[in-house]
Amino acid sequence: MKILRVTKPRNRTDDIEEAIYTFMAQHAVTILRYAMATVFIWFGALKLLPGISPAEAIASRTLSAMTLGLLQPKVSLPLLAVFEMTIGFGFAFARNLRPTILLLMMHMAGTLTPFLFFPHETMSSFGVPTMTGQYILKNMVFIAVGFVMIGTLKRNNPVES
Predict the structure, then answer these.
(1) Can you give the residue ranges of every domain in the chain?
(2) What is the predicted pLDDT for the residue at 125?
(3) Which of 22, 50, 51, 84 can bridge 44 by disulfide, Cβ–Cβ 3.0-4.6 Å?
(4) How far is CA 87 from CA 4, 24, 110, 137, in A?
(5) What share of the chain is helix, strand, coil (3-state, %, to 5)?
(6) Which residues contact 91 (CB under 8 A, 6 or more apart)?
(7) Angle between helices 98-111 and 73-93 (to 10 degrees)
């Protein structure tokens, strides 16, 4: 006994949808890489210019707290800027993403510490972040991007795209 399948005819919308899916499947990781590169290079560069970055105050105090006051803002902010820009250039140009993703995850761990050091500045009440808290919480998206990137790495191939 032969079973006949009835399929609906394809239309222009189906073809466009298929083209979009195909494009995204082929290029989504590359788009993520360049988006991450843009954000990290841009935000890092802002930290090189005193008084420009909206994250300067919280970053300075956090780095001071993390280093028990050993690093002053005039040293820590340029170091943070170079660190962030290194991550950005890694996403833009590195053939091997492993070191870049490692730096990203180290940085993300540090960016979440203001919730521990300065809870009164990051949360207005339980579960209600301040604007600073919201700015920090968006880093969870960067962590998720890092996980996506880890999932795309080929175990035996040092050259990832």
Answers:
(1) 29-152
(2) 93
(3) 84
(4) 55, 24, 14, 19
(5) 70, 5, 30
(6) 33, 34, 36, 37, 40, 97, 100
(7) 140
Please give the average pLDDT of every successive group of 10 residues along the chain, which has 161 residues.
Answer: 71 87 90 96 96 93 94 94 97 92 96 95 94 94 94 63 45
43: number of Cβ within 10 Å: 19
Lookup: tokens for 127: 């579960």
Report DSSP letters for 84-140, one per residue: HHHHHHHHHH-S--HHHHHHHHHHHHHHTTHHHH-HHHHEEETTEE-HHHHHHHTHH
CA dist., res. 42 & res. 124, Å (int): 29
Q: Tokens 């935000």, residue?
A: 43
State which amino acid sits at residue 58: I
- For 30-38, the CB contacts below 8 A with 24+ separation are 30/161, 32/145, 32/148, 32/149, 33/91, 33/92, 33/97, 33/149, 34/91, 34/92, 36/87, 36/88, 36/91, 36/104, 36/142, 36/145, 37/88, 37/89, 37/90, 37/91, 37/92, 38/88
CB-CB contact of 56 with 23 (8 Å):
no
Q: Find the angle CA(51)-CA(53)-CA(54) to the nearest 5 degrees.
A: 105
